[in-house]
Amino acid sequence: MSREEPRLQEHLGGLRSELEERRLNVQERRTTVAALLGQREFASRLQETNIRAAHVVGRISHYLENVDATDESATLRLALADAERRVEELEAQLDVDEVEALKDSILRVLSSQMTEWASILQLEHANAPYRLDDKQLTVVADTSERPIVMERMGSAENWLGCHLIALLALHQHFIRRTRPVPNFLFLDQPSQVYFPSMDSYKVLEGEIGNLEEVGADALAVQRMFDFLFATVAALAPNFQIIVTEHANLPDERFQQALVEQPWRGRLALIPIDWLEQP
């Protein structure tokens, strides 16, 4: 037994090695079988999905083959074409170069009208072109020497005139282009900038009929209202100017335009009878 024991141990070791190798082979075969079974299940689900997709495609194809084609003059096609044209118009309006060119064109038209009206109102530098500066939001007279902005033109009479020609030029543009801007202008006592003399006050209150007898201030007030009346007439019936004014010119158009009689004597905002009540 002692002599044969080494051989037995060697034989047993070989058997153990062979057993472990066979156990590993069995485990590997099981892993392979499990992977194959998983692939077969996935392939089965994929085949089922493909069958369903083919079924849906078949139904869609059948519907498309049997549905009536849309006529060229159908409402939907017309609406689509109209929407596409509208998109093209909006894209063109959003073009920066196109917008700048259109704005410059409008400002040139406004400048031409403002220059004409500046001459009518006899503003300072009336012989030079007037324009609206859209960046500084002011009126500029382009004289031969240099451009002169409104704030450097001097008197309040010129400032009033610049405001009037700019505002009325814009309103005229809006009206002629049918833009959604309220078609009226409200002016509060525009004659105040002329600082008239006492005699001129009497003229403005309607107590003197001959304006030429009292000086340039009253004539300037008359010239301003002539300009306002002419502008309203040119844009009638689409424009209205509302004026709250102490002046009461003897001009027939002025008198016809009065909404109520001037507040003088016992006629005032608060009735005198209220004050006389005990």
Quick overview:
This protein has helices at residues 5-66, 75-93, 96-120, 156-176, 198-204, 216-235, 252-257, 272-276, and strands at residues 130-133, 138-142, 147-149, 184-188, 240-244. It is mainly α and 278 residues long. It is elongated, with a radius of gyration of 47 Å.
Keywords:
278 residues, mainly alpha, 3-stranded antiparallel beta sheet, two-stranded parallel ribbon, 5 strands, 59% helix
Describe the structure.
This protein has 278 residues and is mostly helical. Among the domains are: 83-181, no CATH class; 182-262, no CATH class. It contains 8 helices and 5 strands. It has helices at 5-66, 75-93, 96-120, 156-176, 198-204, 216-235, 252-257, 272-276; strands at 130-133, 138-142, 147-149, 184-188, 240-244. Strands 1-2-3 form a 3-stranded antiparallel β-sheet. Strands 4-5 form a two-stranded parallel ribbon. Helix 3 (96-120) packs across helix 4 (156-176). The longest helix has 62 residues, at 5-66. It starts with a helix and ends with a helix.
Question: Layout of helices and strands, plus pairs?
Answer:
Layout: H1 5-66, H2 75-93, H3 96-120, E1 130-133, E2 138-142, E3 147-149, H4 156-176, E4 184-188, H5 198-204, H6 216-235, E5 240-244, H7 252-257, H8 272-276
Helix pairs in contact: 3-4
Q: How big is the Rg?
A: 47 Å
Which percent band covers the strand fraction? Answer: 5-15%
Number of strand segments: 5
Oligomerization state of this entry? single chain
- Secondary-structure-based class equals mainly alpha
Shape: elongated
Number of helices: 8
Strand order of the largest sheet: 1-2-3
Mean pLDDT, to the nearest integer, reads: 84
Binned, the helix content reads 55-70%
Compressed to H and E, one letter per element, the order equals HHHEEEHEHHEHH
Enumerate the spans where pLDDT stays under 50 for 5 or more consecutive residues: none
